């Protein structure tokens, strides 16, 4: 059994931390604010899951130093934009080598790097084993209520992936492994952008035909970029590829889909974005990937259309019309 430090006590961090605890591991959550007190006193994350009692071997602290004390495994459950800052703080406090699991999906906002690369840069090899990313189709509210879920532990080091596979797998949660880090992380990040586009179509009243076509062509764009970066094609057909894409593009439980839906209903993004208070990773990912695709010469018209709606003020209905009028070609 291990002492596991979960950095971030949001919905996803809490759901995964609970699985570690159910497996007999001692789990300490780190955060900067509530719901810490409710976790320590009542073993309940009242902010996200007030109806779920967490195991007794779970605690909470606002001290990163205490959270990392005697830690054998660290779980990064903070938003992607905070990865580098938190990783630097972790590196300065670690005194022994730890196993590292990454939960977020996206890119570094400054360097456009994949998140595993950020952790690899900021935490020295003397303080960590190879990075593992947990990716695939999953909603925290279903995982924490023990609804059947299958995910993928992705890492360059299959032994590290196997470790987290064993630690997390249980009757309701099955973990596969994959060594294609590039394909897995690119798919996980880009599916959020396609989900925004899918939501926009739903909000515009585009119908099922349109969304099915959009998700299919969106996956083609993801594959083009991933392959250009060195990914393996079979990864895009797996859990972290088409599996995550199917889930995120077809449910109001998805923050990205629901944001897109609101934008589609308004046929404008400005008001919706101003009123949005949630972390929606696909928004800035659309900007990063549009820039990346231009530099690499990769054709990604759907991603670019989402970027233009979100950041340049283009009307969603106009962008759909432009996509439909593009030059005809073979699939």
Describe this entry's structure for a reader.
The protein is of the alpha/beta class. It has 15 helices and eight strands. The chain has an eight-stranded mixed sheet with strand order 3-2-1-4-5-6-7-8, with helices on both faces.
Q: Report the total helices.
A: 15
- What is the total tally of β strands? 8
List low-pLDDT spans: none
Overall outline: globular
SSE sequence, one letter per element: EHEHEHEHEHEHEHEHHHHHHHH
Class from helix and strand fractions: alpha/beta
Cα-atom radius of gyration: 20 Å
- In the sheet with the most strands, the strands line up as 3-2-1-4-5-6-7-8
Sheet-strand content, in percent, reads 5-15%
Blueprint (SSEs and pairs):
Layout (H helix, E strand, L loop, with lengths): L2 E5 L3 H12 L3 E5 L5 H7 L15 E4 L2 H5 L4 E4 L6 H11 L4 E5 L12 H8 L5 E8 L4 H4 L5 E6 L3 H11 L4 E6 L2 H24 L3 H21 L10 H10 L6 H12 L3 H6 L5 H16 L4 H11 L4 H9 L7
Parallel strand pairs: 1-2, 1-4, 2-3, 4-5, 5-6, 7-8
Antiparallel strand pairs: 6-7
Helix pairs in contact: 4-5, 8-9, 8-10, 8-11, 8-13, 8-14, 13-14, 14-15
């Amino acid at each position: 059994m291990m002492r596991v430090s979960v950095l971030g006590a949001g919905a996803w961090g809490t759901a995964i931390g609970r699985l570690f605890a159910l497996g007999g591991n001692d789990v300490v959550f780190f955060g900067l604010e509530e719901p810490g007190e409710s976790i320590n006193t009542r073993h309940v994350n009242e902010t996200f899951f007030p109806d779920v009692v967490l195991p007794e071997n779970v605690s909470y602290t606002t001290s990163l130093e205490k959270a990392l004390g005697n830690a054998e495994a660290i779980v990064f459950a903070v938003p992607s934009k905070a990865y580098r800052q938190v990783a630097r703080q972790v590196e300065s406090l670690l005194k022994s080598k730890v196993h590292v699991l990454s939960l977020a999906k996206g890119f570094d906002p400054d360097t456009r790097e994949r998140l595993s690369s950020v952790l690899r840069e900021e935490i020295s090899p003397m303080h960590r084993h190879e990075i593992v990313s947990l990716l695939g189709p999953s909603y925290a509210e279903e995982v924490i209520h023990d609804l059947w879920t299958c995910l993928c532990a992705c890492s360059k080091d299959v032994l590290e992936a196997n470790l987290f596979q064993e630690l997390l797998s249980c009757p309701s949660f099955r973990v596969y492994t994959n060594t294609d880090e590039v394909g897995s992380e690119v798919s996980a990040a880009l599916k959020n952008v396609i989900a925004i586009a899918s939501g926009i179509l739903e909000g515009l009243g585009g119908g099922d035909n349109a969304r099915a076509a959009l998700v299919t062509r969106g996956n083609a764009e993801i594959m083009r970029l991933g392959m250009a970066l060195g990914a393996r094609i079979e990864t895009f057909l797996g859990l972290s590829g088409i599996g995550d894409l199917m889930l995120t593009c077809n449910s109001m439980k998805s923050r990205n889909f629901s944001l897109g839906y609101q934008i589609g209903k308004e046929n404008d993004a400005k008001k919706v974005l101003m009123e949005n208070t949630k972390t929606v990773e696909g928004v800035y990912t659309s900007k990063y990937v549009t820039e990346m695709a231009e530099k690499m010469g990769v054709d990604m018209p759907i991603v670019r259309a989402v970027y233009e709606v979100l950041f340049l003020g283009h009307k969603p209905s106009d962008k759909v019309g432009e996509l439909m009028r593009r030059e005809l070609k073979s699939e």
